[in-house]
Each structure stands twice: as C-alpha cells, then as structure tokens.
Amino acid sequence: MNTAYARAGYARTLELTETDNVKNAKAIMFALTQLIGALEELLSAQTAEEREQPLETALSRIYLLQKCLDFDKGRDLAVNLFKVYEFARQSLLKFKGNDETRKSVQNALEYVTLISEGWEEVLPTGRH
Hints:
mainly alpha
C-alpha cells in the first residue's frame, strides 16, 4: 500500500467520523475568517463601488453567526457574542468611509478577531 493511498483512506475515515459539533465549529470558524477578510477589504476600499462586495459579504456572515448562537446552552456568552455581532452590523450599516465610521468598523474588526482567536483555541480538532 503506498503512502498517498493510506493518507486518502485516513482522510476519508476522519471525515466520516467527524462529529456534527466539530463540523459546526469549523463552519463558524470559516464564517469568522470570511468576516475578518471582508472587514479588512472594506477598510482598504477607496470607493463606494469597491466597498459594495465586502459590505455584502460581511453583513451576510454576521447574520449567519447570529443565527448560529444557541441562547439556551450559551446563555451569557451567546448574549455577549450577539451584542458584538450586532455592534459590527450597525457599524457596517453606518459606514461611509470617513474617519468616524472607519474607526467603528476598525473596532468591530478587532472584536471579531478576538472572537476568532478564541475559536481557534477551542476548535476540537484544530484548523484543517
């Protein structure tokens, strides 16, 4: 049996045995990564046209992250995460590209980055 074949078999087995919780955690991490990228792209955009796509992406990822919160199990953590995501959403909706609204989006980016770093630490099987 060659090494490539063994690796492929291991990867298939790992994929089949991965729990829903791990898959959900990876999906959340993916959404956070996309949100961070969209916020960075938005902050570097020079024109309203350049801001359109990252703004749309960021808003859709925030919506997804808010929908994934489990207020029954997460209680205070879920409420606090919702508040951070809502702050980010409101910052995006008010964003005009000027210094004042740019600072608000920059703050949102910092908060979301902290959340992402926390997820990386607790992600059950690490990032793949």
